[in-house]
Amino acid sequence: MNTGKATPTENNPRSPANIGTCSLVGAGPGDPELLTLKALKAIQAATVLLVDDLVSDAVLALAAPTARIVHVGKRGGCTSTPQAFVEKLTLMAVRDGQTVVRLKGGDPLVFGRGGEELAHLQAAGIRVEVINGITAGFAAATSLGVSLTHRNHAHGVVFITGHARPGDAATDWKALAATAHSARLTLVIYMGLSNAAHIQSELLHGLPADTPAAVLQNVSLPGQRCACTTLGALHTTIEREQLASPCIMVIGDVLHGLMQLPLPAALCA
Ligand code: SAH
Fold first, then answer.
1. To bridge 109 with a disulfide, which of 36, 114, 126, 161 should be the other Cys (CB 3.0-4.6 Å)?
2. Rounded distance, CA 146 to CA 83, Å?
3. In the chain, what are the domains?
4. How far apart are CA 198 and CA 191, in angstroms?
5. Mutation test of ligand 1: which of 52, 107, 135, 190 has the most ligand atoms closer than 8 Å to its C-beta?
6. 198-254 pLDDT, tens per residue?
């Protein structure tokens, strides 16, 4: 872990000797066994943990009993803690001399505004150690036993959000589908569940309806569920199986082999 020492500024009245440390840590998809050793050590050493709502209880159980755990989740549709407030809380705790872990689901810099938080802390003169986590898209593919880049089927993979930030230009799903088709790319869609009908109809402009698709809920957690389907039946499958957030959608020919295998009953919805 780094020292987190920072030069005092107008905004940072603490002397460098009093300042704490800050780590931006990936908690992985949920199963604590999937934490990196670095993440585990940081979680155990933390005096304050600021935690997103996708971080599992099993991971939080690894924190010291004396640590202060602050839930600052902001999952779509739920009560959220404004981003500026989360960043302020993190800064205050570091300046209070705490060993702060900002714990985020999956990898801390894959979606979920980790990059914004990192930039904000750095702009405030805080040195931040970033510790990778296994992102949900990787964990989803692995739980299916599928290689997202199997060379028989794909030349690459696209991680994309299904939920563009309000005010941002909407994702051009038609263009993405055409590129995915011609360049043989697997699509891994985060935060796409509520927009699945739209995503499906747009993607169908460039990808065949029989392109295999899988939707995985609660990857790596005891309540994991999965539905294997096709792009043409994506939305109806989600509705029928009542899949709910958090979900990862995987679309692409790398799932072909999977469609022919009987999946373990526990895995499939
Ligand atoms: N930083 C996270 C992603 C944050 S965005 C990561 O690297 O995984 C939040 C989205 O991630 C969710 O809406 C969902 O699409 C996905 N996600 C996170 N954890 C998940 C899980 N255990 N199972 C399925 N999807 C998950």
1. 114
2. 35
3. 16-131 (3.40.1010.10), 136-259 (3.30.950.10)
4. 13
5. 190
6. 999 999 999 999 999 999 999 999 999 999 999 999 999 999 999 999 999 999 999
